[in-house]
Amino acid sequence: MGFTSQLLRLLSLTLTFFIALSSSISQSNQFCDAEAGAGAPSSKLLIKGGTVVNAHHQQVADVYIEDGIIVAIKPTITVGDEVTVIDATGKFVMPGGIDPHTHLEFEFMDTVTVDDFFSGQAAALAGGTTMHIDFVIPHKGSLTAGFEAYEMKAKKSCMDYGFHMAVTKWDETVSREMEIMVKEKGINSFKFFMAYKGALMINDELLLEGFKKCKSLGALAMVHAENGDAVDEGQKKMIELGITGPEGHALSRPAVLEAEATARAIRLADFVNTPLYVVHVMSIDAMEEIARARKSGQRVIGEPVASGLVLDESWLWHPDFETAAKYVMSPPIRKRGHDKALQAALSTGILQLVGTDHCAFNSTQKALGIDDFRKIPNGVNGIEERMHVVWDTMVESGQISVKDYVRLTSTECARIFNIYPRKGAILPGSDADIIILNPNSSFEITAKSHHSRLDTNVYEGRRGKGKIEVTIAGGRVVWENNELKVAPGTGRYIKMSPFSYLFDGIEKRDDFYLKSLQAPVKRAKSSS
Fold first, then answer.
1. Residue 6 clears pLDDT 50, i.e. is over it
2. Which fold has domain 94-506?
3. N or C terminus of the chain with fewer C-beta within 10 Å?
């Protein structure tokens, strides 16, 4: 390491400060107390004696980390006194979670989500997630302006993150900006909203243009799949019937509208021959459309979210508005039975990974729609809870293995967005983003103890087995002994390259299609 690098590292370590966040800190000032000089993290760590789990292999081994990178995984590693040793005997050592679907500091429905790129990421780290991918929303249709705004928002980040980009209009400028995003800005996915009429929603013409552009750039097309026109009609109908409370939200956008949009997006993606990613799959109806497409050989990724896996819509009928409103999200949480079906689809490979759609609005913000459910800001929490909820629901029940857990919460996301094996693996050369989970410990989720700025929690009172006791991000121990030690500005933007494995062989399918046309037919010209 050169003198300049050493000096920069020394300055970084000297200036690093930690914010200790415990469950006893009140929600109002949870992220306001900075403790300077709490000690610099060791650049050398040894995780001793744990069961190291990757998506396709597990073994009892030691893991040696230096300068934020995994150096070695061996049955026994001997180190000197300068190395910090963490005993993981009897525990699982796994890649940190990657949340593919979040909305931090998101301006939506005349308000802004309460979790920004510091508080949301701090909460994520406490829950074992070490990277997330957030959605950049264009500014007045401009992708470049939107990206620059999110760059500013993310300056306070305390863990690694990437960006998806939404597309909300179409013209030649947007087309050129998509190229810039992929080739220069490290974005390899674009989201198209088929809902939120009058705000973010796009039509089929734009969807087709967007899909074609994504294919040419090797970028993954993503859709929020609900029929926005029909939802708009459903909302008007509920209001006419005098149904103005949170239950009207679910009633106005039934599962059939999610399925219709999912099917439409799948067929248009098949027409263009480009891979498709369906975000927050919430219903049996949408899941079955994905299953049908995948069975036919189409490349479709289905992402359920934690709330859809474990909650049901009955909460929306709760007599207390504040309680009911906190469960309002889109697509809605469905009737009991959809949750179990989505779990089964996840365990059998029909659905591929788990996100959260973390979009946190507090009770005051939710109250904007106290007289009209259409004005309730849509969104629930999950960035801190996902890893525990999935472990307890899927692993403890025997539906998936520990290796499957790693795949569904980390590895598959890294593969889809082309950052594997830098992320999503415990391998030599991978980033040292690691969690240590004690399968014999228990957890409880409450708004009083969580680390989000949110004053409610849709998983309130949930208890389960399997507790993440240590989170290591970039080689730094950031969560241990129920204490967070994080510093704003320490997170890194992770650029994601185009043409992930989902694009392998796409051109051959195009060639096969062209050869199958038997056209144009050569016809003799009429002599008359």
1. no
2. TIM Barrel (3.20.20)
3. C
